[in-house]
Amino acid sequence: MELRIVALYPEQMNIYADRGNILFLRRRCEWRGIDFSYAAAGPGQSLDPAAHDLIYVGGGQDRDQRIVAEDMVATKGAALAEAVEGSAVVLAVCGGYQLLGHSYQLGDERIRGLGLAELETVREPGPRLIGNIEIEVDLGDGSRELAGFENHGGRTYLGDGAEPLGRVIRGHGNNGTDGLEGVRRANMIGTYLHGPLLPKNAWLADRLIQLALARRYGAEPELAPLDDALEAAAHESARQAALRG
């Protein structure tokens, strides 16, 4: 089997240790004898919705995110929509998460998003939402905890029918008020958790691998167990950091 992954705008959207997520996915595959194919698609480049089974979008500075948003809508929007409808796995973190919605606000400017999820991101009075966070999620394999770090000025609100990724146990979440975090639609996930996310949550990395391989090979594979003592310690450390506030 082969995991085929593409990172969108890795040079522009990489401020939250996003490369660590890609490296962690690679290692989880290599340790199990699963081939790993990596590609990148930057400004002006098209996207083949059938070529990759896991699509990753990280976070960027406001200036880079504005440029990326315009290019993504123009050159990759239709292909991304087709990929999501075709059960491709999408993981979008922080700024990438905001781009999944209809629009988001940068200062006084409203930037058009991809419209792949029913959500809007706005600016409201108040401090940035910063700190360690833990949420409870269920990706079809039982309730689990995700732990990470959030740092966002925008407040994201889900629209009617939108499914959150999870519910906040500790931390702020989408907007600091409704107790929800992230968004999920089919195999598409958007979240504010970073730091990077996957090395702190090995179970999520494995779940994404399973879902991506199932898209190409027709069934979710049973992944060989790994010695995850270090990964478990990293996860517990992140959860304890959220507990301390």
Strand-helix topology:
Elements: E1 2-8, H1 18-30, E2 35-41, E3 54-57, H2 62-75, H3 77-85, E4 89-93, H4 95-99, E5 103-106, E6 109-112, E7 119-122, E8 129-138, E9 143-152, E10 155-158, E11 166-170, E12 180-181, E13 183-185, E14 188-191, H5 202-217, H6 229-244
In words, what does this structure look like?
The protein is of the alpha/beta class and 245 residues long. The protein has a single domain, classed as 3-Layer(aba) Sandwich (Rossmann fold). The protein has a six-stranded mixed β-sheet. Strands 6-5-7-10 form a four-stranded mixed β-sheet, with helices on one face. It has a four-stranded antiparallel β-sheet with strand order 9-8-11-12, covered by helices on one side. The termini are far apart. The model has no long low-confidence stretch (mean pLDDT 95).
CATH class: Alpha Beta
- The number of helical elements comes to 6
CATH architecture descriptor name:
3-Layer(aba) Sandwich
The biggest sheet, with number of strands, parallel, antiparallel or mixed sense and barrel status, is: 6 strands, mixed
Percent of residues in beta strands?
25-35%
Structural class: alpha/beta
Q: What is the total number of structural domains?
A: 1
In short:
The protein is α/β, with parallel strands linked by helices. The chain is built from six helices and 14 strands.
Search tags:
6 helices; globular; alpha/beta; Rossmann fold; 245 residues
